Every structure is written in C-alpha cells, then in structure tokens.
Amino acid sequence: MTSIIKETQSIKDAVAFINTIDVNKFSRLLSRIIQKLHVKGERTFSEEEEQKLQAALSLDKNALDLVLETAAFILEQAVYHSIKPAALLQQLEQIHLNPDKAEVFSQSWASAGPELVEKLKRNTFAPKKLDFVSWQLNLQMAQSSQARLKSPSAVLQLGVRNEDSEVQENIFVEFNHQQLLEFYNKLEIVQGQLDSLT
Amino acid sequence: MSLSNVKDTSFLGGRIPPEIESMSKNLKDVDQELFRKLLKAVVSALEGKDCREIMKSIAESSVIPQERLSHIIAGMHRVLSEAIRLPASSLKQETFKEDLRELRIPEDFITDFSSVVFGNRRAALEAASSQSDPHLPSLEEFKWRVDVSISTSSLARALQPSVLMQLKLSDGSFQRFEVPVSKFQELRYNVALILKEMNDLEKRSILKIQD
After folding, report:
1. Residue of chain B minimizing CA distance to A190
2. A64-119 per-position pLDDT tens digit
3. Which of A62, B34, B188, B211 could serve as a FRET partner for A88 with CA atoms 20 to 30 Å apart?
4. What residue ranges do the domains of chain A occupy?
5. How distant is the Cα of B106 from the closest Cα of chain A, in angstroms?
6. Helix (H) and strand (E) counts for chain B?
7. Residue A183 to residue B191, Cβ atoms within 8 A
C-alpha cells in the first residue's frame, strides 16, 4: 500500500524528538490530540499547557510544536485514508518511529479512530445545522378579525445552530392542517430519496 | 314576532355601535347609486386597497356634505367587518337582514349589504382582514436537496447522505440549513405526530358544538 507519510526532513526531525519521549507520556499526549482532532480552528493545548509540556517532555518550544503538528498530521492522514491499525503500524515503522511509540499510535488509533471518522463524516460546509425540533398544537378560538374559529394550528420550532457556536437560533413556523399535510407529503418524498440511497 | 322581547340580540351585540346608529340616521336621501359607490369603496378598503382617491372623487361629485358621508362610510365599514367576523354557519342571511331592518335601514341597501357578506367576495374579505391579526410566519416555499458527500478534505471515502433544506417564510425571510439524517427522521416523526393529534382534536366533541 502506498505510504501515507512521506519521509521528509521535518518528519525525520519530528520522529527523532518523538523517540525521546517516555512512552506513557506519549500515550496520554496522543489521546488528547485525537479527542480534539475533529474540531477546526482550536488549539489542542492552551499556552499554559504547552509550557508545562515543554518542561515535562524536555523539549523546547519549536520541538514541541513540531511533535504536536506531526502527530496530528499522522492522525489526519490515517483518518483520510481510513487506514487499518496494522497498516498504520507498518507505515510508522517505515519512517523509523520506535516500535513502542508506533505501537502506542496504532492502539490509540484502533480505539479512538472509528469515532473520529464518524465525527468527521458529519462535518459539512453548511453554515447552519438543524439541531432541535419541538412543537406546540393550539386550537385557535378567535382573533380580531374572526370570532368562533376553532381552527387547529401547529407551531413548529426548529433550532438551528452554526457549526462552531453554541448559540441556537430558533425558527418558528405556523401551520394549519392543510399546510402541515402538504409539508408532511414533501418530507415523505425526501424520505423516499433517502431510502433509495441505501 | 310577538315574542320580540325574548329575541336574540342582534349580530352586532347588545349595544349597537355608535357609527352604525349614525349611519342609519344619515342614509336619508342617499340614492342607491351613491350608496353602491360608497359600498364598493368600503369593500375595497376592507380588502386592503388604498381608496383615498376614490373617496375623494365621490365626495367631490356628491351633493351630500362630507361629514355625513364619513358617518355613512364608518357605519358601512363596521357593519361589514362585524358580519364577516362571524362564521357563515352561525350568522344566517335572514338573521342578518332582520337585524339590519331593526336599524331601519332601507330594504334595497340591506340587499346590497347582504350580497357582499354572503356573496363570492366573502372569502377574499376574510383573508384580507386576517392579515393584520398577529401570527407567526407560515411556510411559503419549501425547497430541499439530498446530497451524498463522497469525499471531503478530511475523508477520502465519506459516503454520508444529508438533507439540505431551504424554507421561505411568509415574512419574507429565507432559512437555509442542513439536516443530518437522524434529525430528519426526528422532524418527520414529529410532524406525523402533530397531524395525528390534529386529527384527534378535530374529531372531538368540542368542535361539534354548534354555535
């Protein structure tokens, strides 16, 4: 299988540094990186944490940055190609990573990998995503222009959220019976399309 | 009609609105042509159209002083809005005419009123007047797309279906958002549930009570 990690100079340097790290510490480092890999634009470690890491791993700032970036890169490649843990192990040995570190990589990937792939599958470019559905069914008895109504009316609340924010925007839509039925029929058509995909 | 002191109150309620009282006083020596012009203008106004030009021209071409005309117009507007408020099933045409006769409105004019309230323009009038009532936006247009993302910058083989929806609401706003397949199922399920509840509601006896 084609190698997913080309052995460039910076890879060689990174591997050299990684090989100096204690295997247990490295294992914990890797789990943390995997957890945050699907989140775009957020640094895995805060400034403070990075400084502590530098001390704990006896690496200067540049070395640490290189190690973190390279570890993340390897994982991203693994995800992109949906590579199996055994194949990953082979690739890492090819770039001269110590067997114990390679083993740690492979194991972390085996346990956390599938979940990461699922999360990334759900990442899309759409600005907003439907997050929350709620509704209320009312019986409207009257309004200024009409007395003695007794017309059922439903209010649908659609909560949409931007990819990176916690703020939910609510869309409220009102339907009478006929309108709701029309909407439902359209949803059924969409469902038909989804069914034809599987 | 000898049991007249046990008669139901007029469709206008226990107390006749003042503008209607004053209209009936001011209808003397108004000919049918003028009455019909005024009625037509009032119906236009109820449908939401701008009638200032028409009213001006009627006022200018008539011998009747503007003040009297404004009493008549106000009364007409009130009679029509009150009649349209009540569903056609509860206010019968005969009752409507009877109630107007009680106000001593000439028979020809009663017929004209009646043809507006019970004629084929009624639906348009009802729709126009409920525009100004408070309501949440309704769905005007619903467009959708089913996508399968085959590959992304993070995954060579993604093969993930998703639904993209675009809603155009009656307040003019557009809402576009993606719906993950699981949320779509939730939405569909909930809409079906509301429809079932609506059906149950419509069957219940409270709705069968005639008023």
Report:
1. B146
2. 888 888 888 888 888 888 889 999 999 898 888 899 889 988 998 898 888 888 87
3. A62
4. 9-123, 128-197
5. 27
6. 8, 3
7. yes
